[in-house]
C-alpha cells in the first residue's frame, strides 16, 4: 500500500489506540466534512486523522520542507510556510476550522498569529503547553533554573519555544483580541482530559497542556 | 550507415523506402529527413481539423486547417474519468513514455510515466500532444501551409501558451473527455498546466506544475532572445525560408541550444560532471578547439539538437514562453486568476533551479492560498538545476505518486489492489 493510500482508509483499532490524546480531543471538536487548515502540521499526523475520521477538506502549513514532503507523499494538501508570515495570504473566512496545534509558543508574534487565525477561520482551535504547570513552577522556584521536563525537554538556549505562556496568560490574550472562548480543556502529560471542572487557577496549576476552541 | 538506415525503417513503419535508399547517408542526415517528414506526417496519432474547424489564436488569426499530433498510453475507463494530460517542455514531444521515432531514444519522461511508475499507465489514460508551433506533427512553422503548399515558415501567426492549451482542449474534446483527472508538466509544460487550470478550471481535477512559473522572467526572455538572435544571424536561416532553399541554420540553432543548455544545469552539477577536465588531451592547446570537456559536451548537445529540431519552431516556441504572463490577463493579480478554482494543485520546484527558481513557484502558491485553493507545495532538494525534473529524483516521484493517489481517492477512482 502506498503512503498516500493510507490516508484514504478509516482507522483500524490499533491505529486508534496509538493516537495522541491531544489529537483525539482536537479531532472530537471538529465536525464532519468542514474546511480545515492545520497550521504547523508537522508530518501530517493530526491532519491525516481529521481527513480519515472526519472527512474534512484538510490543508496544512508546515515550516519544515521535510515535513511538507512527507505530508504530500501521504496524499495531504500541504504547503511549506511560516505561521508568522504566510497566514496573511489567506482570505477572510477561508476555513471552517483553523488549528494551531502545539505551535503557538514557537511563533515570533503569537498575538498577531492568533488574530490571523481568527480572521481566516470561523472557529479556531489552539493547543499549547502550559508553562504554569506546578512542575515548571517548582523547578524555577527551587532550582532557580529554566524548567526542563519530560514534556518540555529543551534547554533554554536550544528551544524552538520562544513564547511560552500559561493557561491564564492565554485566557488574557483571548480577551485582548476579542476572541470568545467556546470550550477549554486542560490535559495531563499523557494528553488525557482532566476529568473534572475547576476554576482557571486549578487548571493552570495541574494541566500540562491546554486546548481552546475560540470564536471571533 | 546502411545499418543505421535499416534501424530507422524498422522504427518507423511509415517512412518510405525512397527517402533512405542512398547508402552513403550519414546518421545525422537520416535523422534530419525523418524529422522533416514528421512535421506533416507524424508517426504518432493525430487529429486533423479542417478549414471549417479553425483554431482561434491570441494573435487574432484563425488557423485552419490544422492538426494536433499526440500519443496515448493506458486505457480510458468507462466513466472517462482517469485521463491525465502530460504537457511537454520547450523541445519535448508527444513521445513521453515511448521511443522517439526520430532519435530512437526512450520516452523523455519514461522514468515518471509508464506501467507501475508514479504516473501509472495501468491506472491512468495518459495523453501527450506535440505543442502548437512544434515540429513533430502538430501544426507549426515546419508544417505545410495548405494555401501555398510550402512550409509555413514565419507566415505562421505567433502562438502563445494559451493557444497551445486551446489546441489541447480541442483534442480532449475530440477524445470525448469532459474533465481531465490531472494535467502534469515541467518547465514550459508546467506553464501549460497553470494555463489549463486558469482557462478551463472545471475540466482540471488536479494540476501538477513542476519547475515552472506563472510568467516568464526578464532574465529568461533575455536568454531566449540570445538563442533566437543566434538562429537569425545564421545566413542559412534565409529569413525563415531555409526549407525551400535546401538550407539549414544548423550553426545558429546549435549555438542557441548550447546557451540554453547552460541554463538547464546548475553550477554545482556542471562542476561535478566536468569540472575543468580536458577533453581527450593531456594539456591545453593554446587554441580554440574544445579543450575542456564542458565545451565538447555543449558542442555535442548543440549538434545533435539541430538534427531533430526545426529552427523556426525554436523561434515560435521560445516566443510563446516569453509572452506567458497569467497575471497580466487578470489586471496584474495572479490570485484573481485562480479565484474559486475547484482544482487541486501540487506545485513543485527544485532547490538548484535558477531558471525557474523556487521563488516563482512560491508566487504561484501564494496566489493559490489567497484564493483559498487546494494546494500543496514541495521543494525538492537537488543540485541538478532545472533539468532535475527530467531526471531520477526519488523525492519528486514520491510526491507525484502521493499527490495523484490522494487526488484519485478524492475523485473516487478505484485503486488497484485495494478493497476501498
UniProtKB/TrEMBL annotation, chain A:
Name of the protein: Methionine biosynthesis protein MetW
Gene3D superfamilies reported in the protein's UniProt record: Vaccinia Virus protein VP39
InterPro entries: Methionine_synth_MetW, SAM-dependent_MTases_sf
Pfam families the UniProt entry points to: MetW (PF07021)
